[in-house]
Amino acid sequence: MSRLQLLDLTVDLQRQRVEREGAALDVSGLSFRLFACLLSHGDQVLGFDQLAHEVWAPAVVSEETITQRIKLLRQALGDDSRAPRYIRSVRGQGYQLCALPQTLADAEAATAEVASPSNARRWLWAVAAVLVVAAATAALWWRHGTPPPKSPLLARADYYAGIGQADDNERAIALYRQALAADPDDVSALLGLSRLSSARTCLYNGGRDDAERGLALARQLLRRDGGNAKAWSALGYAHDCLGDIGAAVAGYERALKLDPDADNTRSSLAYLYQEQGRVADALRGNMQLRGDPARVRFRDVQVARELELLGFVEAARRRHQANFRLFPDNVFSNIAWPRSLFGERRYDEAAGALAEALTRGTPHPDLYMLQGELSLQRGDRAAARAAFAQALRLRPQSSLGLTVNGLYAEPAPTPDWVARRIAELRPLPTQPAPWPGVHLELAMLELARQQPVAAAAALDAAVTAGYRDRAYLQASPLFAALRGDPGYARVLARIDADIARQRAQVTSAAWKPADVP
Question: Distance of CA 510 to CAs 205, 513, 516, 517, Å?
Fold first, then answer.
């Protein structure tokens, strides 16, 4: 059976949905997987090791991580650890359900009869079967969708690739190279090396040449097999990391046509839809994954950002804050929470969250760019200059880093430098469409040469390209000189109108998050 009753909760395992009196509760992703694990064992006590193995494997997690996830699950269920109704702690042992779940005979059952021993055994086997199948499927796919490993060497490479840290990325690359030395045509190793080479550029401050290597490997695979969905996804990822948003979207969309169940690809495509201004489409993609959302690495961060852009402030804030607390090794959750506070103009809180993020060992230019903007906000140009310089040191090829460092250099940039930089950034008709951020750089440069009309026009071009972050434009000192400008007001109004349209799409959709009104 796929529907269970736990006291007044109805749990649909297939749809990954929890309801109380017909109202959906916000239990999804890793929280749902943890709840399903507890349900599959009835009222047995589950220790930390067993929970870690059944819910988090192959990732290695601490008891603190499990405790925090139990806390989030309890909050979502409306449970109280001091007087538990659904999940109780068993001192020194682990956790167990407070009652034995019962099978619902069919979808119309309003209440469940007390289960007989044979019925209890039947639903336990059914739920266990669901989890076994899910675990077996997960074991065959690492987070980026590589084929099942064919050797212990590849198994270990896949393991390191799935952890998602810079050092582990390098370990996995070395192992994939060893596998290719033994068999240059190994598809699994070529796919892994392609994605992780691109990840060097996207995630770990590598150079453009790393993503170009990833692109070349993906093309090599596609020359052999044009129907390889994972190779198309790797191609899209390489283009993504190289800044070619149109080619990246095309690669991801082709991959999804070939393999609609590829959730990592679907979520990656959703991120690019967000960057193109298709925020409702992005949220829909992340809410309609085919498998376990908890196994899609950056999905929770993306959903929080999408809700934020759509104006669902409270729902976004809860997710950002939870992500920041639960995933200290996730570079993007470390960026997203302080940046969200910055967008709300809660500058002191943003500075505090940023200071914590900078201690977590996930260096990224965006952290130092935000540090620089916070310094400007409080009038400390010297501190801002130092932060912008650190961002550029981390990623010397960064266009934004080059622009902001030049604008806040000491001595100030010459008019010739500003004009040259504008000419370098202004897109040509023969070039791929730039990311919206390029237009923001042009707006900064136009402000530097006292051209507010041209600066507002550049922001308008950013909106045309997909930029939708109204809050940032209002909060950032980089655009403070435009406040009160009629062209700037028209840009904000244009964003408002489009977001209102997309927000209406979300509020009327069946797939919307449970906490969205």
Answer: 39, 9, 11, 12
CA torsion angle 388 393 399 402 (round to 10)? 60
Based on the fold, state whether residues 218 and 130 are members of the same structural domain. Answer: no
Diameter of the chain measured on Cα atoms: 84
Alpha carbon distances (Å) from 424 to 89, 420, 421, 441, 489: 61, 6, 5, 11, 28
CA-derived radius of gyration, the chain:
25
Q: What are the residue ranges of helices labelled H in 408-485?
A: 415-425, 436-448, 452-465, 470-475
pLDDT tens per residue, range 348-396: 999 999 999 999 999 999 999 999 999 999 999 999 999 999 999 999 9
223 shares a domain with 293: yes
317 within a domain of the structure (yes/no): no
List beta partners, residue 24. Answer: 19
* pTM, two decimal places: 0.70
Peptide bond between residue 413 and the one before it cis (omega within 30 degrees of 0): no
**424 lies in which domain range?**
413-517
| pLDDT (tens digit per residue) in 442-481 | 999 999 999 999 999 999 999 999 999 999 999 999 999 9
